[in-house]
Amino acid sequence: MTPASGRAGLSDPPTLRLLSLGAGVQSTTLALLAVEGALPAPDLAIFADTMSEPRKVYAHLDRLVAVLTDVGIEVVRVSQGDLGADTLSTAGFMRLPAFVQGAGNGAAMLRRQCTERYKLEPIRREIRRRLGARTSATGAVLTPPPGAVAEQWIGFSTDEIGRVKDQRVPYIRNRYPLLELNMSRQNCLAWLRRRGWGDTPKSACTFCPFHGNRQWREMRDHDPAAWADAVEFDRRIRQRTFRGPQEVPFLHRSLLPLDQAPIDQVQRKELRDQQGDLFDLVEHGDPDGCSPYGCRSGGEAA
Ligand code: SF4
């Protein structure tokens, strides 16, 4: 495995080494490997905060930040704002990959635009700033000086090797330490359990339409506050004016209000789709939630 891939400065030492901290299983493993010294300490870890994650994710992040800070690894939280509040207040514009009536009988998923705007953009802005980029008169952080390159660690495990791709910006080159260590997601889970981090949650917005039925059930049965938030959010995203059914959004692919959606059973149509990825997705959702680079359902946001 090539330890690093990307377009810029492959052989040059990076100006900056950082961990993209999604706070799910894989990036938590990377962070703790660095704490233990099994990986060199990154200069910083960046968490992109949509301000819309369930409380247990923030509690997990707080615990992780304390451990990282204790060994001198800086953790930066960047944010583009509150994705949930923005979605409810931005009339007519839906960045979430919500479900709407498709052209045939079934549901169609809107294009995911939230990850790019609320995770990738703030991360890249912070990286440019750390690399010494100037700020324009309008406050935009410009391109970093030539030769300045950040090595960004991304927590893809061996089961996610298909997601590896080059960065689209020349000042970042990606590195995948879990692949170098030949660690699968199951390896990460076992490794975390042995260290008392077995309850690492999936990191994703409470209302994410990529949740599978199992994730919705777990939320309903074990995190009633988050479930109530999601049900209310789902109700409120339809309190807008729509030109037709193709624009009426739902969080669940059944196109039913979340508290009426058939999350306790896999529908017959979904069973027919078992050959593809859809069955897994309907039932289990993304295995690690939505990391900036690893959302299975959409890949890195374009
Ligand atoms: S978790 Fe879901 S809603 Fe939140 S940024 Fe990721 S894809 Fe969008």
What would a concise description of this structure say?
With 302 residues, the chain is of the alpha/beta class. It contains 10 helices and 8 strands.
Number of strands: 8
**CA gyration radius, whole angstroms:** 20 Å
Helicity range of the residues?
A: 25-40%
Instruction: Give the SSE string.
Output: EEHEHEHEEHEEHHHHHH
Q: SS-based structural class?
A: alpha/beta
CATH architecture: 3-Layer(aba) Sandwich
For the sheet with most strands, the description reads: 6 strands, mixed
Number of domains: 1
Low-confidence residue ranges: 1-10, 296-302
Shape: globular
- The end-to-end span amounts to 25 Å
Bound molecules: iron/sulfur cluster
CATH fold descriptor: Rossmann fold
User: Order of strands in the sheet with the most strands?
Assistant: 1-8-7-2-3-4
Note the total helix count.
10
Average pLDDT: 87
What percentage of the residues does DSSP assign to strands (E)?
5-15%
Tell me the name of the CATH class.
Alpha Beta
List the main descriptive attributes of the protein structure presented here.
alpha/beta; Rossmann fold; six-stranded mixed beta sheet; 10% strand; globular; binds iron/sulfur cluster
Account of the 3D structure:
By secondary structure, the protein is of the alpha/beta class. The protein has one domain (16-284): Rossmann fold (3-Layer(aba) Sandwich). Helices cover 33% and strands 10% of the residues. The protein has helices at 25-36, 55-70, 83-89, 114-130, 177-180, 185-194, 213-222, 224-236, 268-272, 278-284, and strands at residues 4-5, 16-20, 44-48, 74-78, 99-101, 107-109, 150-153, 172-175. The chain has a six-stranded mixed sheet with strand order 1-8-7-2-3-4. The chain has a two-stranded antiparallel sheet with strand order 5-6. The relative contact order is 0.19. Bound molecules: iron/sulfur cluster. Iron/sulfur cluster is lined by residues 50, 96, 112, 114-115, 118-119, 204-205, 208, 210, 290, 295.
